[in-house]
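The instructor's notes for this session suggest beginning with a concrete chain rather than abstract definitions. Hand out the sequence below and ask the class to guess, before any prediction is shown, which regions might be ordered.
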Amino acid sequence: MSISRVDTVSIPVSDQGQALTFYRDALGFELIRDHLADNHKRWIQLAPKGAETTISLVMPFGGMEAGSVQGLVVQTDDIHTTHGELSRRGVPLSEIVTIIGGRFATFADPDGNGWVLIEAHSQMLA
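After discussion, reveal the predicted structure:
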């Protein structure tokens, strides 16, 4: 077997345009692809700068519900600076919590998909 990495995580959203604005403009993710297929389905793919794994903003399919994804983790080298910048951009973040090995704060996109922002002082393994 040769599965080598997670390539793309589908994020179910109710409004792809609104979600694109949030992920691109508020979070600063880079737009990789915004493609409208012949059957009027839109494929929007983004990633944090330099990231290997991407996200796709999809209309719910196969039992998904907008806002149902929880616990996705993004990392920063300086949580206080990143927390402040995201807050200025309108991202509603929780307070920063210190835990063994690092600090974290949580936030959600406009549909309620939940994210965790971490600053790890050592490798944090699940």
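Then share the key points. The chain has a mean pLDDT of 93. Residues 17 and 57 are 9 Å apart (CA to CA).
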